[in-house]
Specification:
This protein folds into 2 domains: 48 residues, Translation initiation factor 3 (IF-3), N-terminal domain (Ubiquitin-like (UB roll)); 90 residues, Translation initiation factor 3 (IF-3), C-terminal domain (Translation Initiation Factor IF3, 2-Layer Sandwich), CATH 3.30.110. Strand 3, helix 3 and strand 4 form a beta-alpha-beta unit. It has 147 residues and is an alpha+beta fold. The protein has a 4-stranded mixed beta sheet with strand order 3-4-6-5. It is rod-shaped and about 85 Å long. The protein starts with a helix and ends with a helix. It is built from 5 helices and 6 strands.
Length: 147
Amino acid sequence: MDAAKAQSIADAQSLDLVKIAPKAQPPVCKIMDFGKYCYEQTKKEKEARKNQNIVTVKEIQLTLKIDTHDINTKAGHAIRFLKAGDKVKVVVKYKGREMAHTELGDAIAKRFFELTEEYAVIEKPAKLEGRNLIMILAPNPALKDKK
C-alpha cells in the first residue's frame, strides 16, 4: 500500500501512521495512537527500574589480634547485611611484622565464614592483596527461596 493511502486511513481513524522498520524494503508502518504508545513505554521503563535490585557491598575489617566477642559482633553485623541482600567484603588487615604470619589471617577469615555460613556463600575466596586479605561473601540463594 502506498504511503498516501495509509496516511488517509490513519487520518480517518484519527490515529498516527508510525514507521516500525523504516530501513526495510518496503518500509513497514503501523497505524496506532503514538502518544498512548509512548506513555506505555515510559510506564514499562519505570516499572523495570522500580523492580531493579541494586546490590551494595558492605565492608567489615578485621585484624589478627581480634578477640572472640569482637569477631562474633562483626559476624552479627555481616549477617544483618546479608539478610538485607547486600554483599559483604571481609578485610583482614596486617600491620608491621604480622605479614610473616599470613596463615593466621586465613584462619580468621575461615572462622568468620563459619560464623556466617548459614547466611552466606563465598563469592570470592580469601586472597592476599598487599597488606590485606580480602574475601567477598554473597547472600545465600537458598535463604531467598525460603522467604
